[in-house]
Amino acid sequence: MELRDYLRIIRQQWLLIASCVLVAIAAASVFTLRATPQYQSTAALFISTPQSDGSAAYQGSLFSQQRVASYADLIKGKQIAQRVVDKLGLDESAGALASRVSASVVKDTVILNVTVQDSQPQRAQKLAEAIAQEFTVFVSELETTPGSENAPIKATIVDPATVPVSAVSPRPLSSLALAIGLGLIVGVGLAVLREMLDNTVKNTDTLREVSGAANLGSIFYDGKAAARPLVTQLDSHAPRAEAFRVLRTNLQFIDVDSDSKVFIMTSPLPGDGKSTTAVNLAITLAQAGQRTLLIEGDLRRPKTSEYLGLESKVGLTTVLIGKIDLDDVIQPWGDDGLHVISSGAIPPNPAELLQSRQMETVLDRLRRHYDVILIDAPPLLPVADAAVLARQADGAILVVRHGKTTKDQVVAAADRLHSVDAELLGTVFNRTPSKGNTGYGYGYGYGYAPSDDADILADASFTRSKRRAAPADSGQLPAAKPAPEMVAPAHDAVVGDHHIPSRSELGLDGDAAPSAPRAPRRTGQFEQVPTHLQESRDRTRRPQPPTEAASNAPAGPVDRDLQAAGPRGARTGRRSVGDFLSQDPGE
Question: Fewer CB atoms inside 10 Å of the end CB: C or N, the chain?
């Protein structure tokens, strides 16, 4: 692993690392609060020989340095501790006292420091002083040879023990720093271990590698998706809506030579978001003007009709068993021309119905009338329905959930498709985080949406009024009036409506015959129209008397179609779904 891999793991697993640090700090705080304060008192002894001449003093100094290392072990032994216990009348054993005594020798000197630790500062000072005094007597007794009155070496107290002012244990700051360090080490170690043991798909590179197919798009995680599952419930520049538009664009490059495409939307396991992805992709395709049909092919746990609020009792299963005609089960949804076939009653044998000859006939018939057909299929691994449908369609699009779907599940799903000679066209990475290494372009919708429409129109109206009020010699040109066809759209396209307006209906020929009144147009994005633009629109729509030349002019192909269809205002609306399906495909 490289350094950037560790940084990525720390960034992704920061919550685990922070939890470990907090636990370590909490443990250190509890230990500090519950620990009994300990005090230390130290006495210093000087080890020397009584010789006074030069050579003897030098030899005595070497002798003392050799002895002082041994004295450091003797002074913290049980024999000295027992003498102190007997002298002070303590109620503890010699071993307990010896465990709280420590000794050290100053390097290259004959100075011996003895330290005693106790919970009371005065008691620590008394114990250190008593141990130093008893050790001087012990050295004299130990070094005096039989028949001699004086010992060749002695220990002298040069720095008596004092009463300590502050406790040496616990130390809150030191304990806190130690806890933070240990917490970071443990947290980073656990994060790396978790990353190495984690088998889920967390980036597009891994997804492309294990699936063997291109990633068509990444759908952002939205915490409010459960309450607002459809893209029509979002702002047009929301990141999730923009992600589906990117997915729609990438989908156009699949099987570009085919006039009609049939895709199934599936996933390795339930809960990966295949149904919401299929619904929103179908809506986005219809918004782009493509003739789109969404089929609820999950005959075990149908969700599409629930999301769209459509009737699900009559649908695909009703057609497959021959109880109703295909024309009668297609339901229109929304204003963009999306058509939907719900699941119908849940059958006991979904796989047999989906692989029947009647299902092939239904798909062949629908291909002649739609540009894109999306089938929301069941998951691949639990049941065989999706594999059966994928073989009849042009291919499958696999929806993979970030951080939940494992690599083995993606491989197994791809193998399931390949085993029936079905093609995996691509993958959709669902519920990806808005920040990370799963792709790029996250957050594109944030801060890049246009300003408020009313503010734009108000600023434009103010600018045009200033230009009209500018003097002739100011060098400023008057504002150009917008073309009528740019101010008011001539018509609204609907699925199944092939009417092409003539120039007279558009109001572009002043000599043309007046057209029938237009139906009220749907509310658009910009509704606050400046006054002078509204006046220009009214002048453009005002009927003009026909001229003799225009009346005698031969009718073109488009005008003949208009005459056959009748005036636009006389049409009542869209044709029925049955008329749409019964028309000739080349129409």
Answer: C
